[in-house]
């Protein structure tokens, strides 16, 4: 079903946007509470206070709605201070990029979404693929762009830029992510900053020694 597009100054456009926001918020609460598999479009419509027809006007299926929830979570976390680390030299920019990565990956919202994906991806493989595309690849793309931007001036000869971005993510996630995900440990701000600094230093060593 194709959603009719209204002009921005049309009152119906504002109404439709509010309804969409209500649906996404209801879906977020439902997915994080009951998981993906056990959440129905009907229950989301009821929680949002809209008809099931309205839900399907905005979202083709549950996959699309889950993507909207992921995008909304990333959008909220990216608001605030503009991202300036891409313009800073690597010894400054990479630690800042690492801090942003860790704060995002270890945020309550992202950990909750990741748990939903882990729980239900076995039954719904598309769920894992969509999460990878929207969240993991999105974060890695920022690092790829950064490495491509600074490689010429730094004299880097990176054979596989995407592989380098994945290696950076792996360094940042190692030693902490699973423990925080399982709730057996928490990363305090001081530890996060130190881990980010260490991960950035390690990836620089690998890049400058041309091992990537």
TrEMBL record:
DNA-binding region: 40-59
GO MF: DNA-binding transcription factor activity; transcription cis-regulatory region binding
The keyword Acetylation belongs to this UniProt entry's keyword annotation: no
Superkingdom field: Bacteria
InterPro entries cross-referenced by the UniProt entry: Homeodomain-like_sf (IPR009057), HTH-type_TetR-like_transc_reg (IPR050109), HTH_TetR (IPR001647), TetR_C_Proteobacteria (IPR039536)
Stretches assigned to the HTH tetR-type domain: 17-77
SUPFAM superfamilies reported for this sequence: Homeodomain-like
Keywords: DNA-binding, Transcription, Transcription regulation
PANTHER family documented for this protein: HTH-TYPE TRANSCRIPTIONAL DUAL REGULATOR CECR, HTH-TYPE TRANSCRIPTIONAL REGULATOR RUTR
Name assigned to this protein: TetR/AcrR family transcriptional repressor of mexJK operon
Organism: Granulicella mallensis
Source organism phylogeny: Bacteria, Pseudomonadati, Acidobacteriota, Terriglobia, Terriglobales
């Amino acid at each position: 079903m194709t959603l009719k597009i209204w002009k921005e100054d049309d009152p119906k456009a504002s109404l439709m946007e509010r309804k969409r926001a209500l649906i996404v918020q209801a879906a977020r609460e439902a997915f994080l509470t009951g998981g993906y598999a056990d959440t129905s479009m009907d229950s989301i419509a009821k929680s949002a206070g809209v008809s099931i027809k309205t839900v399907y006007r905005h979202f083709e299926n549950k996959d699309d709605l889950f993507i909207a929830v992921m995008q909304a979570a990333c959008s909220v976390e990216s608001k605030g201070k503009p991202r300036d680390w891409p313009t800073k030299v690597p010894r400054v920019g990479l630690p800042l990029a690492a801090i942003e990565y860790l704060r995002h990956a270890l945020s309550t919202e992202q950990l909750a979404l990741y748990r939903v994906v882990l729980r239900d991806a076995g039954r719904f493989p598309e769920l894992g693929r969509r999460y990878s595309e929207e969240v993991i690849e999105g974060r890695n793309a920022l690092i790829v762009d950064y490495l491509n931007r600074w490689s010429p001036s730094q004299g880097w000869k990176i054979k596989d830029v995407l592989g380098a971005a994945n290696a950076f993510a792996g360094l940042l996630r190692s030693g902490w992510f699973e423990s925080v995900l399982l709730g057996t440990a928490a990363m305090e701000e001081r530890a996060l900053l130190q881990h980010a600094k260490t991960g950035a230093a390690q990836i620089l060593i690998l890049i400058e020694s041309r091992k990537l």
